[in-house]
Fold this sequence. Notes:
homotrimer, alpha/beta
Amino acid sequence: MKDQKYAATKTPEIRLVRRSPEYWRVTFDHPPLNIFGPEMLPQVNEIITAIETDERVKVVVFDSAVEGFFLIHLDFLAKLDDLAHFPPGPTGLHPWPEVLVRLSRTSVVSIALIRGRATGMGSEIALACDMRFASREKAILSQFEVGAGLVPGGGPMARLSRLMGRGRALEVILSADDVSGDLAERYGYVNRSLPDADLDRFVDALATRIASFDKQTIMDTKRLVNIASLPPDIEIESGWNACVASMGRPATQQRIKTLIERGFCKPAMQKIAWEISWDAEHR
Amino acid sequence: MKDQKYAATKTPEIRLVRRSPEYWRVTFDHPPLNIFGPEMLPQVNEIITAIETDERVKVVVFDSAVEGFFLIHLDFLAKLDDLAHFPPGPTGLHPWPEVLVRLSRTSVVSIALIRGRATGMGSEIALACDMRFASREKAILSQFEVGAGLVPGGGPMARLSRLMGRGRALEVILSADDVSGDLAERYGYVNRSLPDADLDRFVDALATRIASFDKQTIMDTKRLVNIASLPPDIEIESGWNACVASMGRPATQQRIKTLIERGFCKPAMQKIAWEISWDAEHR
Amino acid sequence: MKDQKYAATKTPEIRLVRRSPEYWRVTFDHPPLNIFGPEMLPQVNEIITAIETDERVKVVVFDSAVEGFFLIHLDFLAKLDDLAHFPPGPTGLHPWPEVLVRLSRTSVVSIALIRGRATGMGSEIALACDMRFASREKAILSQFEVGAGLVPGGGPMARLSRLMGRGRALEVILSADDVSGDLAERYGYVNRSLPDADLDRFVDALATRIASFDKQTIMDTKRLVNIASLPPDIEIESGWNACVASMGRPATQQRIKTLIERGFCKPAMQKIAWEISWDAEHR
């Protein structure tokens, strides 16, 4: 465990920094797009394990070092099979839904500080955090997957439905469209959107404050909120299974191919929402 | 099935238009008040059946052709017994709660475009849709029933509680008062309220976009949102039973009679909320 | 029962006034801080019993007669043991969680009119009410307990999670910070915040309106909203048990002692949030 924990701090794409023994930061740093590739999954697993097993940490903030991107979806230029065929984690779930479930259930408080795009897996890890604060000007959230023929695999059906209600969750997921920082706050996708200039200070003050409280009290309190608010794990598992099934369908493969031809997952790509406007071809 | 499907398009009060094989519109057109009468129930049933059984349709938008009214509550000038004694639908439920349950559960995406009054049954059908978009200036939503001595019969206790939380749901239902487009958005009664001039274009673009996506992916995604967000059918059934029981009580009959004397269900009636101010007589 | 009912109206700290047989007001009047002390618990119990057993009352508004305070947390200068060792109520629960559960479940509609601070137990009683309306300028809500090393004991983990979603509930409870009237509305902590000058008139009109409706219809409607929205009682019970456990821990005793040295529970104390900034000592 100890080894894994420190290994995590050495990886280039995800950095773990201990601001204090009680307050950690996890920073996604994979320029130019902060795109999630299969090789990052073991790193996330190591960090979640470190969070679960450390005796002092109380708060972890997840943020990004890459301008314009919090963390975006799966790298479709990598082999998708690499991701789909990862060995399962300790609970038997595939490691992607598993790290998300474990992040939500750990007694440590997790906060996503969202600046830039948080799409697909980036949105899913933000949703698995306990709280989300976004830049009003610079955050863009989305679950774009349905536009690419994919069922989202990291639980947004379960989590967004409970955060923002059925109607808005269906809109966000089925429209597969960009959600601005302002709309994200109105819909409850994030706790609040703050002026970009205030965001870092606000999140740091909140994390520092919580880190000053009693760890046992935080743990007992969060556990009771979990009972009232977390989806059953089976819903996350079912979502992942539906995602894997959708990946294998020829219609989905064709959509992803077309997206890649249009520049999906390449540096020039800035606006996924536009990329998945299928209107011309598919009506 | 085929016959029923096309029969629906011939009825005068509810029109089904296929904008494309994937994208349909259902338009309430029963001037001057777009009031829901018992004779419209079989038409709604036929349309829901068509939606459920068509192999290509992905999105259905519900709107109105009548100025000032999306769809309003039951016509109390018609025989209430006609409605209460309809034979049950295939699941054994009374056909009104049953069409609402089926609309929510079908794999087709339903969107209510709300301009004018959506009260009582009009609000209930909007709530059974997957999403709701309202005119900021011209939409008025309400569940006025409690003011008339009736428990609402189409599930708003189950649905509003999950959409907007207990406190706001109790306010909307127990106050029996009008909710403006602006407040409807703040409370989560609708996804968003848009400037009236933008509403049609917005909903059409959203419906067109979703209609361009993969039907199987939409279906699998919506099914998982259903699991996370739909009330159990028994809650809708219990609400209907409580509604029928309330209809039979003398106190309710007296309230409805008084309302009708004041102009309820007649063309001049514009503001239900005012009509059910009982203060003068009942305190 | 009759005796208990009238006894409640004679107590100095909580006043029950019948505006009409159908519409009652309960006013907290315990200057200077409207702080909840153990001696008030039997008074609350009597009032809840009166509400449960009266045959005509339909609506009860809870408000305050003390400038600046709706009702605040437990008086830590009193003996905490007095509160922890109260004999259980009729259901076997400790009387504090029990009166809250009973208030939520009674068929009478309860409305909190919040002006000034509603913290700790004041927030919990407001959350047990069916609706909450706050002064935009003068209301401050909080669950400060975690900052004092305490798990909140009156159910906010269960109730806030369902009212505002997991992310915002965790922020409110774990930050232990003040929530303004404006933010309280955006988060769904209250139904609405109104300009202070409009608040009394608005709540009075709403209460009068509901009081004019049919009692049986209100009862049947609220019962169905309860099914859709109330937490299971066991969640409230577990929260109370976690609170009692946290009271006994030395770390918590030390935090409370430090708070009291800083002026906690004394008249000069205006801003709890500031009092529980532990940063200096605990990092």
